[in-house]
Design goal:
- With about 230 residues, the protein is mostly helical.
- The chain has one domain.
- It has 9 helices and 4 strands, in the order H-E-H-E-E-H-H-E-H-H-H-H-H.
- A two-stranded antiparallel ribbon has the order 1-4.
- Strand 2 and strand 3 form a beta hairpin.
- The radius of gyration is 21 Å and the shape is elongated.
Length: about 230
């Protein structure tokens, strides 16, 4: 199928814009070798390492993160009746963006990345380790304690996510298209929906969202090392 060159050019442009946003955000991530880092969790307090609420919060985050969809190919298909071109994956793109919303956009959600990072941040190098309900230590393969450096790296990844989100179109997409119909976005939504540019915008932002999943991978590693229960069998 021969896709018109102007459509191919627009697809390349929105992909390039998404990758540029991620590339600029990635510059905020500090250099740190994470592949051989070993994390241990301990507590000298008689209190549980995490409350029931924190366990549920952590578990909900891990389950959502592990099931975030990834769309690796995008095809413009020709409508058999009108002969016009549409993204074949537009339904998957909309569904994927909705899945990413709770972690990367909804600040009121318990699994929002800001809330999740706050959950364990104090466990690195606590002021009073003997009284801390939870302590997390990051060590190299040789046993060197690099908890402070690793925490700085985690914080830099959070800054990268903040940067990419601020340069995305999530506000418009979630509040004007997918989740709500806020009046401030009404004209933009109708215009972009009818002129076809909305599809390019959704594509651009699902690429950004998928990049954010990679930025959050080390935070996922920390949360996942906490010993909460696995899903039981039928």
């Amino acid at each position: 199928m021969d896709i018109p060159p102007q459509i191919l050019a627009k697809l390349r442009k929105c992909k390039s814009e998404a990758h540029e946003i991620l590339k600029e955000a990635e510059k905020k991530i500090s250099d740190f070798e994470t592949d051989k880092i070993h994390l241990t969790v301990s507590s000298s307090s008689p209190l549980p390492i995490m409350s029931w609420e924190e366990q549920a919060q952590s578990l909900a985050f891990v389950v959502r993160y592990e099931h975030l969809p990834e769309i690796n190919s995008f095809v413009a298909g020709r409508h058999p009746t009108t002969g016009r071109y549409y993204l074949n994956e537009i339904d998957q793109i909309r569904a994927a963006l909705n899945e990413y919303r709770t972690i990367f956009f909804n600040r009121n959600d318990g699994i929002f990345y800001g809330a999740i990072t706050n959950l364990y941040q104090k466990a690195f190098n606590p002021a009073q380790p003997d009284k801390a309900p939870m302590q997390i230590v990051a060590q190299t393969a040789s046993g060197q304690d690099v908890s402070s450096e690793y925490l700085k790296h985690l914080k830099s990844r959070k800054k990268a996510i903040n940067d990419a989100v601020q340069n995305s179109d999530f506000n418009f997409i979630y509040n004007g298209v997918l989740q709500h119909a806020d009046a401030q976005y009404a004209m933009q939504m109708v215009k972009q929906y009818t002129d076809g540019s909305l599809a390019y915008l959704l594509l651009k932002n699902v690429i950004i969202a998928q990049g954010l999943k990679d930025f959050l991978s080390e935070h996922y590693k920390v949360i996942n090392v906490l010993n909460f229960p696995r899903m039981g069998p039928l």
